[in-house]
Amino acid sequence: MTLPRPHRVDLLIAVSGLACGLLLWSFGLYTTGDRVFDQRWAALVPLAVMSATEAVRRTLPGTALAVGSLALVADQLTNGNLATVLMYTDVVYASVVYGSPAQARRVPYTTALVTVGVTVGFLVWWQNAVALLVGVITGMVSFLPAVTGAVVRNHREAAESARLRAEQTALLAEMDRTQAVVAERSRMARELHDMVANHLSAIAIHSTAALSLDEPATTRQALTVIRENSVAGLAEMRRLIGLLRDGSGDTEPAAAPTLAGLDALLAQAAANAEPSGLVLVLDDGRESAAGLPAPVELAAYRIVQESLTNALKHAAPGEVRVALARAPGALRVEVTSPYGERPGPSAPGSGAGLVGMRERVALLGGVFEAGRVTDGEGRGCWRVRAELPVDAHDEERA
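Above: the chain sequence. Below: its structure as tokens.
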């Protein structure tokens, strides 16, 4: 097993401690005298061992503490060196700061018990106040560095937790911002598609008719419809641009369309659908037009608008029926159109309209269905059906 490489700061501390200890030793400055090993060189052994533990104080804190404790005991059996004692205090501090969580909790309690044990033992042995001084020194050498290390470690962990929380908050904020941007882009895509697709589909169909039929009357009628739809599409685009402005310009955003404009919508769609043999019928079964929230009215209007656009593109000649009805807690919108082969020009579809309608209904928590069904006479038709929730308070106001 490869031992971890000592940190360069720890190596610098070890070399500095050893140099200071050698300097004190060369001047004959000892901490005690008349010990078991009173040879002058004996104090250098604990000093060298303690310097080695300083070199691994960060990489092997547990081992450094165990070996350093033995070196400190050995130092007390010699004449002693102040540098050895000071380096031991740093080893105790490092064992709490850089050691495992269990070791960081255990060392302060252990050093406290050692301090109390030493104080009580010397009081029983000497029975004078000097024992208290020994206990204070023991506490300063072992317990005080351990407590200091615990305080520093707690502050570091608190700072790290705060940093992680800040990063998490920033990440969540960025996710919220990204989701908001995606949602806004989806909303803009739905609005742009619903506002412009109707007009562009009519322009495509009538321009194809004008190019394929060499009849002046038909061409003039087609060009008239093309002009009307291009002007209306330009107005819708300007409205969308107004909605996207930051409010610093002179353009004020127009109000969102409501169900009150269905008659005008159907009249315009009827003019566009006349060459295709489509007849548009509005069946408004609501007793009152009041009591609908603006998002519900906008969604219902856009669903009808997109359904009429799809009918203009794909429906076979026949009746296109738009039905509105109020149910308890909901507004029901249903658009049916003939299903089958259609004569004359048609416009290609991308499927974005169905996706947009489904998204609008899902945002309101409603139910959306679209597909081929059979009517009461056995004929195939395409039906779009949406059920939009309406709050009970809005119904009471109605």
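The CA atoms of residues 201 and 347 lie 6 Å apart.
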